[in-house]
């Protein structure tokens, strides 16, 4: 080989994304070799993570204001996210890519963003997670379910499974609560990779899509909950179907002649894009699967579906809608799976969830088809409270809209390249049909965003990398800046309510005091729902909802409700805490004067039995009548 030819093949391991003038640009003399390049990029990633942990561990939770954690995160910490992002973009420029390096960088990002509160908060956050620990603890101790206490016991599989695991292993669920979002998000990544790989063979697009998924999942449903567990089931089912049961698709042949003529008028190359063959990786996977393994995969899908049906009200409908749409368009098989899912879902609702349906059927039916009302319950009804809280809500709406808009841009750019990613487009659009069911307690838009996010993140990545031959250093900078903007917005939107979602050590001590002193059958409550009740001895203590009494300044009604729940000769316990105060101020817009006057009224009419800087406990039996 001539010397000129040798010069042409001796290229740096780090190559430009964008061919210019028909030649690959390289980093001339930047690094001596590929191993040194990878080592330096890995070192940058480790430094970013280490400095982030050091900075976040020093934060003062008392300084959090109405904007949440973003108000106390120092600029150098955000610089750490920028450093990790730059290292990730450099990793995307390696040829060939280092999957191990990219995976470790995404793990670092998840630890930094999803584990952020665990580095400086005194106790696990989010009172609903504490309540779910109480559900599992009650099942483990008694072996019983309590559907009359809470509707979630009509879908108990998650709590039964966690109770079994904690009993067998001796695991303290409360002890791991702070790290559940991090661990659960990491579990989402393997099926997410398979889903994106089913649409493209461009590894850069896959890894960038996963990166954006982690940066845009602000909904925070990955805590210790059935919905967080069910998202894993949803992703796993879709990943199996698109990897081992994917079909190349078929051009629709409708029974109506006029519609068939319209479809046949579509240009041939557009039809070819519709019948996009499976990627090389998927074809290889399908080839390697034996008949016996295929039966095992079908059984696994059935088991995952059964777990979902038995553990969550909404996710099975999202799974059913996605699978039905993919099968109608000929993207997956076998069709017997759809029948199995319908039987499992209808069977559970027809037999196991009767307790819930008998008392809530009217409300469920009333919301069907009311898209405008359901949307209003998710948008306008949340624009209340303090100025800071409203900024956070508007930020969430704007962030969601921006991500969806970027996804549309990415889909259009892929379409311009004659690539119709129909399967992922279906997964991104079908969840919007859930809004026709009900408002889901004002959270249906959150769930729609969550179910659509795997596909949306792919198309967001496609907005920056529409195909394998389009990229540049300029675009690398754009990706870094976009990621930084997403990271900052992620912290604002995900942790914007941290003033009342965190639990302090003093609040935990007050809860421990009540648990130690309350006898079985005695009710324990707070003036609103922002108190971490029920994490211990859940089945022994009622927790009446007093929020409307306190919000409406009906202290007589509040006292009467608690006294009516107290057993003969027993007590009723009321906790007033910092978190409840912040919730009333941020969400209700309650002034300091109104809060103080209502609390003072309770103090005058009751006996204070425990107090610390963040919480006070009152025993209701000592309340005097006016």
Keywords:
4-stranded mixed beta sheet, 626 residues, 3 domains, disordered N terminus, Rossmann fold, mainly alpha, 4 strands, globular, 61% helix
Would you write up a description of this structure?
The protein is mostly helical and 626 residues long. It folds into three domains: 3-119, no CATH class; 127-470, no CATH class; 504-622, 3-Layer(aba) Sandwich (Rossmann fold), CATH 3.40.50. Helices cover 61% and strands 3% of the residues. It has helices spanning 3-9, 34-56, 75-92, 99-114, 127-142, 157-169, 173-176, 180-197, 203-216, 226-244, 257-264, 268-274, 280-288, 291-309, 315-328, 336-352, 354-367, 371-378, 387-416, 422-429, 444-464, 473-494, 498-501, 505-517, 547-551, 555-565, 578-586, 592-604; strands at residues 524-526, 573-577, 607-612, 615-619. Helix 8 packs antiparallel against helix 9 (203-216) and helix 19 runs antiparallel to helix 22 (473-494). The longest helix has 30 residues, at 387-416.
């Amino acid at each position: 080989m001539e010397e000129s030819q040798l010069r042409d093949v001796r290229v740096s391991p780090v190559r430009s994304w964008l061919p210019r003038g028909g030649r690959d640009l390289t980093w001339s003399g930047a690094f001596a070799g590929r191993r040194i390049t990878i080592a330096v990029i890995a070192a940058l990633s480790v430094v970013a993570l280490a400095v982030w942990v050091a900075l976040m561990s020093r934060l003062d939770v008392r300084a959090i204001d109405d904007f949440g954690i973003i108000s106390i995160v120092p600029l150098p910490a955000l610089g750490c996210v920028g450093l990790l992002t730059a290292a990730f973009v450099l990793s995307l420029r390696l040829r060939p890519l280092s999957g191990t390096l990219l995976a470790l960088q995404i793990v670092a990002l998840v630890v930094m963003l999803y584990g952020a509160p665990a580095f400086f908060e005194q106790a696990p956050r989010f009172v609903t997670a504490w309540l779910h620990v109480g559900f599992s603890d009650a099942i483990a101790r008694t072996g019983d379910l309590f559907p009359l206490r809470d509707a979630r016991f009509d879908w108990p599989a998650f709590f039964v499974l966690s109770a079994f695991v904690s009993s067998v292993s001796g695991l303290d669920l409360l002890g791991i609560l702070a790290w559940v979002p991090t661990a659960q998000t990491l579990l989402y990544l393997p099926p997410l990779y398979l889903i994106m790989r089913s649409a493209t063979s461009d590894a850069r697009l896959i890894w960038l899509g996963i990166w954006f998924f982690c940066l845009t999942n602000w909904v925070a449903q990955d805590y210790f909950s059935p919905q967080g567990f069910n998202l894993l089931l949803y992703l796993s089912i879709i990943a199996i179907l698109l990897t081992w049961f994917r079909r190349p698709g078929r051009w629709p042949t409708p029974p109506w002649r006029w519609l068939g003529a319209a479809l046949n008028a579509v240009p041939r190359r557009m039809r070819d894009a519709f019948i996009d063959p499976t990627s090389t990786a998927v074809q290889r996977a399908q080839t390697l699967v034996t008949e016996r393994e295929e039966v095992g995969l079908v059984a696994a899908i059935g088991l995952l579906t059964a777990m979902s049906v038995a553990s969550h009200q909404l996710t099975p409908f999202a799974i059913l809608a996605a699978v039905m749409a993919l099968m109608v368009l000929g993207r997956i098989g076998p069709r017997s799976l759809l029948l199995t899912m319908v039987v499992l879902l209808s069977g559970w609702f027809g037999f196991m969830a009767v307790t819930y349906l008998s008392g809530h059927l009217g409300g469920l039916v009333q919301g069907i088809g009311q898209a405008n009302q359901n949307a209003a319950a998710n948008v306008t009804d949340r624009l209340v409270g303090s100025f800071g809280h409203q900024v956070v809500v508007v930020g969430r709406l704007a962030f969601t809209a921006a991500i969806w808009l970027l996804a549309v841009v990415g889909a259009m750019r892929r379409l311009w390249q004659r690539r119709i990613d129909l399967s992922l487009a279906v997964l991104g659009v079908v969840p919007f049909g859930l809004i026709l069911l009900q408002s889901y307690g004002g959270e249906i838009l959150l769930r729609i965003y969550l179910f659509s996010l795997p596909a949306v993140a792919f198309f967001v990545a496609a907005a920056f990398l529409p195909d394998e031959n389009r990229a540049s250093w300029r675009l690398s900078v754009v990706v870094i800046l976009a990621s930084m903007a997403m990271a900052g917005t992620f912290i604002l939107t995900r942790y914007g309510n941290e003033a009342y979602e965190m639990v302090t050590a003093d609040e935990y001590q007050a809860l421990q005091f009540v648990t130690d002193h309350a006898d079985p059958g005695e009710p324990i409550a707070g003036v609103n729902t922002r108190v971490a009740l029920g994490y211990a001895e859940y089945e022994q203590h009622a927790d009446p909802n007093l929020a409307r009494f306190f919000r409406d300044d009906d202290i007589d009604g509040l006292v009467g409700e608690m006294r009516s729940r107290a057993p003969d000769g027993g007590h009723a316990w009321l906790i007033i805490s910092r978190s409840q105060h912040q919730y009333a101020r941020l969400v209700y817009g309650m002034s300091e004067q109104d809060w103080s006057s209502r609390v003072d009224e309770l103090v005058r009419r009751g006996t204070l039995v425990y107090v610390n800087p963040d919480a006070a406990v009152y025993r209701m039996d000592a309340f005097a009548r006016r």
